[in-house]
């Protein structure tokens, strides 16, 4: 021993005992918003409950309503806001006054292994480990209840007597979805989410407790368990340690901390981590994530200074050249001994099917999904997955390859393009044997996006004159035959094989024409030749077109230009082959026909943030139908010329103001059903809510 120890003698030794009677039952309550001199020991505790697994405690403590510091008017107002005027057993404050206060706990610390409650008696120190340290703070859930009641009252006032009718009119579409198998990483993220923890905490049932005061006999009895019941050393082995063990407990040896990298979503790629990989792995990882990429974009994603020759060598190992762009190989996406997440089809079969789709895209820009599915005979989910990886759907044109043809790459690297072409020839021969087809079965279709042929103006003019001279007599005979045919009663005829479509003529630079590249199945595009329009005054709408527009508005009352064109094309598709009486129909002609059919354009003030197309913002309504109800519709249309959306009471009051007290609730219901749609308690003109 050092000589200095004589100056610091031991004056007392205290025996320490570990009490275990209240282990996992002892909690320390703290009141951080209350001074220590103002405890709640003498306050009446009305109720108590606990969720032991999540260490959640709630207490209700009575308030002294007779205290001079208590404001009775405020207490009564709070009780009125929370419970209202009704007297029910479920009311929060049964005395019509805020006479109690609630406390809710939060954990001060999640690790209480270093904390214990100590009691010193007769030279002995008794320690009981704490199960939890909870901070009790005032709970204001009664304010949430008051807000809920306030919102319910406001909603009832706004809805009025129409709430029931609107609920009956609203038909909601139910979509049934089947979830994919959850991965381990997704499951771990879900378990650690705040929403999951809140849900688990809400699932644990409350255990109701009985509160005993500090001086209660039961409390005195329970306090005795804070002392160790077995005083011999055999029961207190936790505190009997050798000096070396005790020292290691006080100063544990340093352990190397493992740096845990944050776990990101499986579909998120960290560029910082990517650039630490070898070049081949970088290219493979990028192609697996992107699926289709031009070579220039790939070079931009890689670190600067990398040789393009090395990148070309790497990418040819994991991707194939399709229309000048690189598409990841099928065996990279579907390794051996794996299967489809949709249907369970083996990887080998998936690779053959996907290679067929890639090969077809080397031949043409667009594919039809039905043709692909008929050849490779895989489930629709897998076929759609293949197409979504490398193409986008186009209206009436099938699936178009995702990227434009990269002619610059083909010109810059002809050796690579030639090598890839030879590789595709080998793949083609294998696919022909597997799927039993020949290349001639898939003749490439003419595509609008193919490189145009440059023809001079003089050549065009000469060709046009020659064609006009050759076809003038034929067109004149066809016109005469048609005039003769229209003067007779209509009979079924199969000599004409033509169809009519609305030709898209943008009214302004801001309008977008509809995609009409896919023709209907009952004939040639746009009906009769253009010469009919030139010689026969084709700009005037035909009586048949006026009849169709008039009938459609008598049925729907309000239509946007986009919806009218859709209904017209459906009508054309339903006509028998050879039935072509509408002539050459354009957007301008269709709008003129609408105005000639006693309809008007409703200039609805769409909000600035609306992303509705131009055709959907052109809304037309039936102004005159010959019945007395026209006045009701005209008043409604005038309202919507100034408002994008309105409430029912506004419409009803305006109708009463314009038409008198004769307007009934039935009239308003009929008007709203014919011309409007309801969403979120507001009424919109049909066709103006962009979905």
From TrEMBL:
<dbReference type="GO" id="GO:0042797">
    <property type="term" value="P:tRNA transcription by RNA polymerase III"/>
</dbReference>
<feature type="compositionally biased region" description="Polar residues">
    <location>
        <begin position="516"/>
        <end position="525"/>
    </location>
</feature>
<feature type="region of interest" description="Disordered">
    <location>
        <begin position="476"/>
        <end position="542"/>
    </location>
</feature>
<dbReference type="GO" id="GO:0005666">
    <property type="term" value="C:RNA polymerase III complex"/>
</dbReference>
<dbReference type="Pfam" id="PF19725">
    <property type="entry name" value="RPC5_C"/>
</dbReference>
<keyword id="KW-0240">DNA-directed RNA polymerase</keyword>
<protein>
    <submittedName>
        <fullName>DNA-directed RNA polymerase III subunit RPC5</fullName>
    </submittedName>
</protein>
<keyword id="KW-0804">Transcription</keyword>
<dbReference type="InterPro" id="IPR045576">
    <property type="entry name" value="RPC5_C"/>
</dbReference>
<feature type="domain" description="DNA-directed RNA polymerase III subunit RPC5 C-terminal">
    <location>
        <begin position="444"/>
        <end position="691"/>
    </location>
</feature>
<dbReference type="Pfam" id="PF04801">
    <property type="entry name" value="RPC5"/>
</dbReference>
<dbReference type="InterPro" id="IPR006886">
    <property type="entry name" value="RNA_pol_III_Rpc5"/>
</dbReference>
């Amino acid at each position: 021993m050092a000589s200095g120890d004589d100056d610091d003698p031991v004056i007392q030794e205290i025996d320490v005992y570990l009490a275990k009677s209240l282990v996992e039952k002892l909690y320390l309550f703290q009141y951080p918003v209350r001074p220590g001199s103002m405890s709640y020991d003498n306050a009446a505790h009305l109720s108590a409950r606990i969720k032991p697994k999540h260490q959640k405690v709630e207490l209700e403590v009575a308030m002294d309503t007779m205290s001079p510091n208590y404001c009775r008017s405020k207490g009564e107002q709070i009780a009125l806001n929370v419970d209202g005027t009704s007297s029910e057993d479920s009311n929060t404050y049964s005395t019509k006054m805020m006479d109690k206060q609630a406390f809710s706990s939060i954990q001060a610390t999640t690790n209480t292994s270093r904390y214990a409650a100590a009691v010193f008696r007769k030279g002995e120190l008794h320690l009981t480990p704490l199960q939890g340290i909870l901070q009790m703070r005032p709970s204001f859930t009664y304010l949430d209840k008051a807000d809920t009641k306030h919102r319910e009252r406001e909603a009832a006032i706004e809805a009025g007597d129409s709430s029931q009718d609107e609920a009956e009119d609203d038909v909601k579409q139910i979509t049934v979805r089947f979830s994919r198998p959850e991965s381990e990483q997704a499951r771990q993220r879900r378990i650690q989410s705040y929403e999951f923890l809140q849900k688990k905490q809400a699932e644990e049932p409350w255990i109701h407790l009985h509160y005993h005061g500090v001086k209660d006999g039961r409390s005195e009895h329970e306090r005795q368990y804070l002392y160790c019941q077995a005083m011999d050393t055999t029961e207190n082995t936790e505190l009997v340690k050798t000096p070396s063990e005790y020292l290691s407990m006080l100063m544990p040896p340093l352990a190397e901390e493992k740096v845990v990298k944050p776990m990101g979503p499986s579909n998120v790629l960290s560029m910082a981590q990517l650039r630490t990989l070898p070049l081949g792995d970088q290219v493979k990882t990028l192609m697996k994530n992107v699926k289709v990429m031009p070579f220039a974009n790939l070079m931009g994603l890689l670190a600067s200074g990398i040789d393009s020759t090395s990148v070309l060598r790497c990418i040819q190992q994991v991707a194939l050249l399709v229309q000048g762009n690189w598409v990841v190989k099928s065996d990279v996406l579907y390794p051996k001994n794996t299967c489809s997440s949709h249907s369970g089809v083996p990887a080998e079969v998936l690779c053959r099917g996907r290679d067929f789709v890639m090969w077809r895209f080397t031949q043409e820009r667009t594919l039809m999904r039905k043709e692909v599915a008929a050849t490779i005979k895989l489930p629709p989910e897998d076929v759609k997955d293949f197409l979504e990886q490398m193409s986008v759907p186009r209206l009436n044109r099938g699936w178009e390859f995702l990227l434009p043809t990269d002619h610059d790459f083909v010109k810059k690297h002809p050796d690579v393009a030639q090598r890839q072409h030879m590789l595709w020839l080998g793949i083609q021969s294998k696919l022909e044997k597997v799927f039993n087809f020949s290349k001639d079965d898939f003749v490439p279709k003419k595509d609008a996006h193919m490189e145009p042929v440059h023809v001079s103006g003089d050549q065009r003019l000469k060709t046009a004159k020659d064609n006009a001279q050759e076809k003038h007599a034929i067109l004149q005979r066809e016109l005469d035959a048609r005039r003769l045919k229209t003067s007779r009663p209509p009979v079924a005829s199969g000599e004409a094989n033509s169809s009519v479509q609305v030709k898209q003529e943008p009214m302004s630079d801001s309008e977008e024409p509809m995609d009409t590249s896919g023709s209907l199945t009952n004939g040639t595009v746009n009906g009769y030749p253009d010469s009919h329009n030139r010689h026969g005054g084709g700009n005037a709408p035909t009586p048949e077109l006026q009849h169709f527009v008039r009938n459609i508005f008598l049925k729907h009352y309000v239509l946007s230009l986009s919806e009218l064109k859709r209904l017209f094309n459906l009508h054309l598709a339903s006509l028998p082959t050879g039935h072509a009486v509408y002539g050459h129909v354009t957007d301008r002609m269709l709008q003129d026909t609408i105005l000639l059919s006693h309809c008007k354009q409703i200039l609805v003030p769409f909000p600035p943030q609306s992303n509705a197309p131009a055709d959907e913002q052109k809304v037309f309504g039936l102004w005159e139908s010959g019945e007395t109800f026209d006045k009701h519709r005209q008043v409604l249309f005038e309202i919507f010329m100034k408002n994008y959306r309105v409430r029912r009471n506004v419409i009803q009051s305006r109708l009463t103001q314009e038409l008198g007290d004769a307007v009934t609730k039935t009239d308003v219901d009929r008007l709203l059903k014919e011309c409007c749609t309801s969403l979120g308690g507001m009424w919109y003109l049909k066709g103006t809510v962009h979905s």
